[in-house]
Every structure is written in C-alpha cells, then in structure tokens.
Amino acid sequence: MTQDLARIRAFVQVHDAGGFSAAARIHGRSKALLSKYVTDLEDYLGVRLMNRTTRKLGLTEAGEAYYREVSQILNQLDDLDATITEQTAAPRGILKVSAPRNFGESTLAEPLFAFVCEHPDVTLDLRLEDRMVDLVDEGYDVALRISEMSDSSLIARKIAETSVHICASPQVIKAHGVPKTPEALRGLPCIIDTNMSGQANWRFIEEGRTLSVHVDGPVRVNSPMAVATAARQGLGFALLPSFLCESAIESGELVPVLAEYLPQRPLLQAVYPHRRHLSGKVRALIDFLVEWFARNPV
Known about the structure:
Largest sheet: 5 strands, mixed
CATH topology of the largest domain: D-Maltodextrin-Binding Protein, domain 2
Distance between the termini: 52 Å
Order of helices and strands: HHHEEHEHEEEEHEEEEHEHEEH
Number of strands: 14
Number of domains: 3
CATH class of the largest domain: Alpha Beta
Mean pLDDT: 88
CATH architecture of the largest domain: 3-Layer(aba) Sandwich
Strand content: 25-35%
CATH superfamily of the largest domain: Periplasmic binding protein-like II
Helix content: 40-55%
C-alpha cells in the first residue's frame, strides 16, 4: 500500500510541477525515481497516463480522469494526517475568534483568556463586534454567537444555554403597573435593541404557541449594554440577556416581569466553516468553553 501511494503521489507531483525535472527539484527526489514510479503505475493499471516528449508532458484522456480522482484522495489523506497530528499535539498557532462586543467584554473574555493561559502556544486574535462576520472570507476559525443558525454552510456546536429577562425599573413599574400578559406591553414604553433578532417584535410562549408582540418606546439602540442602562434609568421595559441584568435585578434596580412567558433559552454556539475535519486548536477551545460554562452558567 505504501508503495502504491508513492507511485500515485509521484504521478500527481509530476503533473502539478509540469515535468519530471521540475518535480524532482521541488520534492527533493531523483528524476529517475519519479519516472520509475510513474512507469510502474502505468504498468499496474495497464494504461498510459502521460504522453512524454522531449519538449512537453501531457496527460492522456485516461490520465486526466485518473488525476482528478487521485488528487482529491491525496488531498483528503493529507488533510486527515494534518488533523490527526493537530488533535494529538498541544494546540498552537493563531486562533482568530469573533464574538459580540458586550457579551465578549462581560462574559467571554475571562474563559477565552484562561484558555490562552492554559495553552501558551496559542495566539488569540479576538475580534469583538456586533455583526455577523463572514467566517470564510474574513479568515475566522470560529465565531461565538447567541443566535439561531441561518447559514447552512456553517456548523454550530452548542456551548451553553443562556437566559433572558423582561425587566424595568421600579419607577416604571410604579407608573405603568406589572404587565400580566405579553399583549399588555403594547402601548407601554419599551427599549428596543436593534441588534436583536426581531428588534421591536418580541417573542413569547403562551399556551404552548409562539406569540410575537410588537413594542415601541423612547429608545432604539444597537447595544444591549446601552439598553440595560436605559432600563435602569427608567426609560421603559427591556428585553435583556441575563449576564447584563441579573446583578441589577438582585440589587432591586430592575424588576423582572412576564417570566412565565419567556421563550426557550437562547443558545451560546460555536460556529465554524463546514470542513471535513475540525482543527485541533478549535476543537480544544470549544471543549474548554463547554466545560467552563458547565461550571459557570450564564
């Protein structure tokens, strides 16, 4: 089998280099050995793969068909070898990660930096910004998102469940009362996070069905942290992730409402491009985050 692979690889190398001499220089093998391997392969297959002249080397029709198949197989084998090597070795190299700004600053930074402390051969390139980056075109290894998957060309792995609250300041509750149902939010002042999926259409679960309630109010802003500030200052009801409001709820600055109508817990997911094999450094990071958030729920 090893000898067969050597012959196949020699055939591919010679074609890719454009000739025996060039392939010999590039791969540090003798021209005679490469020629022997290609001839042996043709003898084994019983068909000529290459037309050789003193000036030009080209593939026969059979050679073109054979090259298309075996070059893909060799690429897959090389990919698999590299992946297995990465998985068995300590994570190393540059790890480019995308995450939302507020969640990254408040919650993700600590475990990500802890990962780097544990794996000193990794260089973390962390980009915190509130937009859906193009992982492939922009060269990201992984994105950490609290969202639903929308791009079928990507793969997502659940890291943790998160939670959300509808809440308002005590003065807003005093002025408008506690809404008893989601519909009661219509006409009440609400603070809208324009980064959030649905924006002014807040989703609830009522009697087993999903209900969308359109809300309006004095503030629209593309930052959940700014929404939390506006809520604490009494500007209206807010839909907030728990990591930005639980301390304010505990201190009494914010009062939660409609808890029984909140939808299923949003997922924190690691999203990465669809590849046959996941790199070792990305796999190590995801495993680390899953364990971290199992100990430190959000």
